[in-house]
Design a protein that fits this description.
Layout lengths: L4 H21 L11 H8 L10 H14 L19 H13 L10 H17 L8 E5 L2 H16 L3 H4 L8 E6 L4 H9 L7 E4 L9 H13 L3 E8 L11 H11 L2 E5 L24 E5 L11 E5 L4 H6 L31 H36 L2 E3 L7 E6 L8 H14 L5 E4 L5 E6 L7 H16 L3
Parallel strand pairs: 2-3, 2-4, 4-5, 5-6
Antiparallel strand pairs: 1-7, 6-7, 8-9, 9-11, 10-11
Helix pairs in contact: 1-3, 4-12, 5-12, 6-8, 9-10, 12-14, 13-14
This protein binds pyridoxal-5'-phosphate (PLP).
């Protein structure tokens, strides 16, 4: 397992060079690979793991494979799914986390690492408008786990016996409410919690794709009258498909009136709060019972950095604490937190380090500047598309643009849009996707989530779209 001093030096040198290659070369290459499953598998065929290999040669093999066989989300022409290029401080953070390998199950083992995370939880809580002395939270793998955590804490809040008796101990079927534009992870969480898929009530959206608050209130009332037990509504602040922000204050009012938990899924969009220019978009978030936020999306931290926040101090412990005698002593006795009693995970990597290093070095101001710049690029893209006869179909200030072709008779059909998308991807210069809005309408979706994307890439994308359209029939 141990390499010699000489081997280590060669290895670190090569890893360092490879990281630089990634930063410098990826933007110059294709964003979309030309590859097949067979090609990738045949590359791996010679690996029998019988004879030990040279460390540097093995790293070189992996680096080449990653360069040739992936969609490069770090590429400035990637207008994709909230996967940013990672900050360099984030890369350093993940490297150091792997090297020191602190165990974040218990405070006893990793006090420094855990206090860094607790400090970040308070700082992000305050950014969202929570009171620092009330907020608690946990670093999780991503938005999916954060939403699952939200559902569990809301269940615990509504049904204090849930932890001991389970759902079968309840006399009524619990139900929760999400909009048609919400992220699928909430439905998955419903299944995983044992509530079942039918417990999720899909609330229609208005013409601007925001949750229809009247329909929400009516559905909750109807469910109550029919003997169900509504316990949570989840708003989305920055929907995955459309970038739309639900009317948080109004949903919050309904939640309060109906006495149910209000969760805000701000996995991607939450970062817009880092710029004071856009705080108004998130009015009402501070009254939410809990929030999902992903630092690995619009904060450009390497993947695996989600955050669940709540203003209900004690709810995480109530939900997740199962003490084990083989674990080190209970940290709550010294007013500290054992993360394994506050989340689903036990052995856990130091997720917060890449966030801490990125934020400490860029500062809130660095993020504010970058977010504002990307929002402006989004507006620029919208304008250029409209000038060329594309029709923008989503209404949001966030840099996510959904559009169809207004110049072509079949310009809104899935087949046409797919042809356009395929041609753009084949150019190797830009990456865009197809999404289906909740009314079934297919759209081309282009999202800016990249600190390397400039006006040049916007220009190239618009040009690629024009060329694709010319040759689409
Ligand atoms: C991305 C996203 C999620 C899921 O987050 P992961 O980190 O991919 O698990 C949840 N909700 C919204 C609104 C998202 O955009």
């Amino acid at each position: 397992m141990e390499l010699s001093t000489n081997e280590r030096q060669r290895l670190w040198q090569r890893v360092k060079e490879s990281v630089e290659t990634c930063i410098v070369e990826v933007p110059r290459g294709r964003v979309t690979p030309v590859t097949t499953p067979g090609q990738v598998r045949s590359l791996l065929e010679s690996f029998t793991f019988e004879d030990p290999l040279d460390p540097v040669e093995t790293v070189d093999f992996v680096v080449q494979g990653l360069l040739d066989h992936q969609v490069h989300v770090s590429h400035p022409g990637y207008f994709g799914l909230f996967n940013p290029p990672p900050t360099q401080m984030g890369i350093a953070g993940d490297t150091l986390a792997a090297a020191f390998n602190p165990q974040l199950a218990t405070w006893h083992h990793s006090p420094f690492a855990i206090e860094i995370e607790q400090k970040l939880i308070r700082s992000f809580g305050e950014k969202f408008g929570y009171n620092a002395s009330q907020v608690e939270g946990s670093f999780v793998s991503g938005g999916t786990e954060a939403n699952h955590t939200a559902l569990l804490t809301a269940l615990m809040h509504a049904f204090p016996d849930f932890k001991s008796k389970g759902l079968r101990g309840l006399d009524r079927q619990p139900t929760f409410y999400v909009s048609l534009e919400s992220h699928h992870s909430l439905l998955k969480a419903g299944c995983l919690c044992g509530l079942g898929r039918d417990a999720a009530r899909l609330i229609p959206v208005d013409v601007k794709l925001r949750m229809d608050v009247e329909a929400l209130a009516l559905r909750i009332e109807r469910d109550k009258a029919e003997g169900f037990a509504p316990f949570m509504v989840a708003s989305t602040a920055g929907a995955t498909n459309s970038g739309v922000i639900d009317p948080l204050p109004k949903v919050g009012d309904v939640a309060q009136r109906m006495n149910i938990w209000h969760h805000v899924d701000a996995a991607w969009g939450g970062a817009v709060l880092l710029s004071d220019n856009f705080r108004g978009l998130f009015e009402g978030v501070a009254q939410a019972d809990s929030i999902t936020f992903d630092a690995h999306k619009w904060m450009f931290v390497p993947m695996g950095a989600g955050l669940y926040l709540t203003r209900h101090k004690g709810i995480l412990r109530n939900t997740f604490e199962v003490l084990a005698s083989y674990m080190p002593p209970d940290a709550s006795k010294i007013d500290a937190v054992d993360p394994y009693t506050h989340s689903m995970q036990c052995s856990r990597r130091f997720i917060g380090l890449k966030v801490f290093l990125s934020l400490a070095v860029a500062g809130w101001d660095g993020y504010a500047f970058e977010i504002k710049r990307q929002v402006e690029l989004g507006h620029m893209l919208r304008k250029k598309l409209e000038a060329n006869g594309w029709i923008i179909v989503n209404h949001t200030d966030l840099p996510l643009v959904c559009f169809v072709d207004g110049k072509n008779q079949a310009g809104g059909s899935l087949e046409f849009l797919r042809t356009i998308q395929e041609k753009v991807l084949a150019s190797g210069r830009s990456w865009i996707s197809i999404a289906h809005l909740s009314d079934g309408q297919p759209v081309i979706r282009a999202c800016i989530c990249n600190f390397r994307t400039t006006e040049d890439e916007i220009h190239h994308l618009v040009k690629d779209l024009e060329e694709a359209r010319l040759h689409a029939d």
